[in-house]
């Protein structure tokens, strides 16, 4: 290739240099007899000038150029008579001495501009053109920097990048598998991995000690803004580690990645809180710590004996009364406050009551008549609002419903009041998750993370009679209200792993059938080990400020799992079904 520079690299240092450029025609302008052309490549844009007085044939070629033509330009760099401070190359331009059309373009169906009017569906149908846009290319440059930073950091820490199979067996890990039929063993199926969980544990059993992989994972689940059927994770596993070792490793990885990718500093160590503390204070196991204040408070004692029968009956039945105070919402109208009830109902709460605490404990609103001065002061102390006037929103019911509903309300209030800090990154480790959570759908206990998570040994006595009270050596890392990673110390003893399977309703026969290959290898001296998986797509969302995970994946799927560019999934030829021994039910 004879290219001397990328377009976006040219500066005043290149003045009087002869250059060869390749790129796409962004636009052309014929002004005063000269043609001015903006030439674009992945590094930026530079202005090219075609002057008929220099070479008439070159000028005539330039007059036939259209948008998105791929061209080769030769020329000389000079200072621009009218600099453009809006672009990095705005101090210079290239006076063309030659131009060659490499590839022509039809009129593009979407504009290749920084800001366009096309909707998401149109953009993703024309994703190749969309990927040429500067804001979109910025996302993938940052993603590239982040991935390379991760690889360098883990290599420096002694971790080996090892591959695991894409064609594996179906094992229950919490989501629905994508299945791949086998042609050679008709009636049998591979499963695309939801994660490399078992294989990375087997690497530890094999003695590799420190493993990582930037790997594709697959889950056939309903999609939303932060989910895709195929996604990328940074998978890490190590032997002879405790949670503290993982925290320290990932703290360093986050700090290095943020610095290398976007030149941002992250204060270390990252803060930590238990799962119980996160739920009690913020109503979420992925709290958004950019929203300062407005923490959830237990108001049960405030309303005991208050005369408000609804709350008192909830408390007598073992429920709780919880609330949060929003000083900046004190001046809201009754309608604005009542609109908040839809938020808590959407998240399972029966309803919301409220009161406004004014100066000198003057109260107003539906709860006002149940609060004397002493009770109002009690709320102020719990909420830590001092003498500030505040709107207090209150929900009552089961703790498992009330707390998440108020957590959602907290975020909604933060958005409406503009309290969520921008251009900042607030991290936290969430630790000591419950080992199990109750599934209303299955009417049984299910793993909070996955069935290979190690319980706290001191809680094992609760396993049979109170599974919900067993804490695990599991941890998540969150940033700005999004879970960007999670992991645990694993079970490395065969007998304990079988006991956990049994508690989850997995019979010995089923365990042998689905996990026999794994359990057998726990018999041959498996070291204690643990790890973490970080979501590369979610990390990129946060680094780039993207609104959706679809924006940070080159060729994403829609919420219905469709690729608009290729029209996948698609029907296949009947012959392929016959080869696989399958028949399609219509």
What is the topology?
Elements: E1 18-31, E2 34-41, E3 44-50, H1 56-63, E4 70-79, E5 92-103, H2 120-125, H3 127-130, H4 134-156, E6 160-161, E7 178-181, E8 189-192, H5 197-205, E9 210-218, E10 230-239, H6 243-262, E11 272-274, H7 275-282, E12 297-298, H8 300-303, H9 309-316, E13 320-326, H10 334-339, H11 341-346, E14 353-357, E15 363-364, H12 373-383, E16 390-397, H13 399-416, E17 427-431, E18 436-439, E19 444-447, E20 474-479, E21 482-489, H14 494-503, H15 508-521, E22 529-535, H16 536-544, H17 574-580
Parallel strand pairs: 3-5, 6-9, 11-17
Antiparallel strand pairs: 1-2, 1-4, 2-3, 4-5, 7-8, 9-10, 10-22, 12-13, 13-16, 14-15, 14-16, 17-20, 18-19, 20-21, 21-22
Helix pairs in contact: 4-6, 4-16, 14-15
Assembly type: single chain
Taking pLDDT < 50 over at least 5 consecutive residues as the criterion, the unreliable ranges are: none
Rg:
30 Å
Going by helix content, strand content and strand pairing, the class is alpha+beta
What is the strand tally?
Answer: 22
Strand order of the largest sheet: 6-9-10-22-21-20-17-11
CATH topology name of the largest domain: BirA Bifunctional Protein, domain 2
Mean pLDDT: 94
Q: Helical residue percent?
A: 25-40%
């Amino acid at each position: 290739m004879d290219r001397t520079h990328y377009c976006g690299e040219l500066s005043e240092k290149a003045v009087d240099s002869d250059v060869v450029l390749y790129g796409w025609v962004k636009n052309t302008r014929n002004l005063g007899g000269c043609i001015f052309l903006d030439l674009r490549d992945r590094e930026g844009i530079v202005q090219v000038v075609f002057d008929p007085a220099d070479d008439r044939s070159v000028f005539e070629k330039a007059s036939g150029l259209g948008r998105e033509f791929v061209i080769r330009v030769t020329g000389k760099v000079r200072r621009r008579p009218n600099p453009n401070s809006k672009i990095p190359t705005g101090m210079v331009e290239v006076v063309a001495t030659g131009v060659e059309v490499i590839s022509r373009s039809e009129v593009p169906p979407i504009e290749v501009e920084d800001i366009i009017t096309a909707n998401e569906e149109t953009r993703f149908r024309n994703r190749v053109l969309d990927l040429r846009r500067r804001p979109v290319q910025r996302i993938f440059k940052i993603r590239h920097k982040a991935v390379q930073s991760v690889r360098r950091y883990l290599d420096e820490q002694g971790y080996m990048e090892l591959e695991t199979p894409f064609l594996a067996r179906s094992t229950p890990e919490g989501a629905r598998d994508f299945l791949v039929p086998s042609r050679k063993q008709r009636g049998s199926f591979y499963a695309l991995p939801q994660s490399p969980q078992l294989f990375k544990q087997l690497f530890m059993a094999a003695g590799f000690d420190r493993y990582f992989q930037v790997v594709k994972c697959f889950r056939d689940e309903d999609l939303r803004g932060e989910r895709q059927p195929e996604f990328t994770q940074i998978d890490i596993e190590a032997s002879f580690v405790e949670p503290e070792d993982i925290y320290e490793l990932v703290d360093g990885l986050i700090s290095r990645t943020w610095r290398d990718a976007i030149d941002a500093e992250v204060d270390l160590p990252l803060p930590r809180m238990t799962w119980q503390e996160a739920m009690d204070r913020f109503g979420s196991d992925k709290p958004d710590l950019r929203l300062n204040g407005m923490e959830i408070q237990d108001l049960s004692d405030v309303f005991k004996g208050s005369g408000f029968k609804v709350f008192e009956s909830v408390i007598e039945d073992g429920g709780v009364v919880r609330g949060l105070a929003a000083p900046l919402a004190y001046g809201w109208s009754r309608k604005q406050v009542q609109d908040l009830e839809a938020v808590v109902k959407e998240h399972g709460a029966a309803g919301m009551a409220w009161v406004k605490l004014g100066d000198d404990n003057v109260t107003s609103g539906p709860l006002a008549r149940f609060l004397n001065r002493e009770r109002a002061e009690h709320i102020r102390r719990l909420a830590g609002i001092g003498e500030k006037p505040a709107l207090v929103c209150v929900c009552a019911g089961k703790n498992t419903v009330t707390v998440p509903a108020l957590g959602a309300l907290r975020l909604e209030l933060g958005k409406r009041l503009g309290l969520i800090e921008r251009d900042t990154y607030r991290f936290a480790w969430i630790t000591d998750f419950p080992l199990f959570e109750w599934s209303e759908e299955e009417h049984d206990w299910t793993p909070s993370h996955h069935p290979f998570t190690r319980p706290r040994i001191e809680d094992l006595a609760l396993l049979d009679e109170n599974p919900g009270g067993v804490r695990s050596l599991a941890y998540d890392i969150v940033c700005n209200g999004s879970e960007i990673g999670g992991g645990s110390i694993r079970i490395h003893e065969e007998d304990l792993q079988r006991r956990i399977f049994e508690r989850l309703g997995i019979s010995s026969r089923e365990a042998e059938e689905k996990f026999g290959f794994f359990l057998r290898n726990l018999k041959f001296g498996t070291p204690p080990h643990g790890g973490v998986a970080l979501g590369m797509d979610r990390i990129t969302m946060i680094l780039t400020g993207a609104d959706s995970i679809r924006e940070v994946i080159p060729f994403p799927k829609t919420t219905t799992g469709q690729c608009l560019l290729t029209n996948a999934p698609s029907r296949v030829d009947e012959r392929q079904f016959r080869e696989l021994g399958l028949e399609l039910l219509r």
